[in-house]
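User: I'm preparing a small set of examples for a lab meeting where we compare how different chains pack in three dimensions. I only have the primary sequence for this one, and I'd like the structure in token form so I can line it up with the others. Please keep the answer compact; I'll paste it straight into my notes.
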Amino acid sequence: MGMGGNIGVSAGEDGVFMIDDQFSPLTPKIKAAIKAISDKPIRFVLNTHWHYDHTGGNENLGGEGVVIVAHDNVRERMSKDGFIEAFNKKIPASAHIALPVITFNDRVTFHLNNQEIEVVHRSNAHTDGDSIVIFKSANVVHMGDTFFNGLYPFIDASSKGSVKGMIDTANHVLALVDYRAKIIPGHGPLGDKRALIKYREMLVTVRDRMQKLIDQGKTIEEIIALKPNADFDVTWGKDFLKPDAFLRTLHAAMSDD
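Assistant: Understood. Below is the structure token output for the 257-residue chain.
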């Protein structure tokens, strides 16, 4: 855990497989932390999606010969100037060395460190390029930003994210794991099946409340004034996305749905 998205690492005889790499200035600290786990080289970085708090170290690691892997849409979005509408933020195109050199459409499997590591694309959830990473024998899943543990999630409608896709992805993982599984969120503390169930139930409830208000013809400003999720706000709205900001992103994502 650090300033960006949570990093996952598989370390063993075959080398280091890394999930996401946070921000560029943090690369030396991240490498030092990995060195404390393994003296083997970092061989692969898997980007769970294109956002800069998960791909910021790509340029440094790519320059050292680490193979960067991601969904097709991640490379496409990183290759050109982008815009995150919810934050009114322009994102410049990434340097060529930072781009994924291996991309996939649906899924890809790594056979490393006595693990079968399955990477599965989940369409239109947090973005249009999300991947979840399943360590089958270790009973671990890294969900990237399709799972914010204990926090209201950011759903990037400007990158074709959707509430339906977020809920569908939670359901997909819940069907895969048992109660002993460790589930790594994109943000927030290490989770498990119980935490993911709570998250899924929260998403379903706030979606249904928002849909009812949309059906009544309420504007987003009227919805914010009503505070429809006041019972959730104290728990889920205390960190990254405050309650009003979450309502805006939820509304935008549902409008696109």
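A couple of notes for your slides: The chain has a mean pLDDT of 96. Residues 8-193 form a domain with the Metallo-beta-lactamase; Chain A fold (CATH 3.60.15.10).

User: Perfect, thanks.
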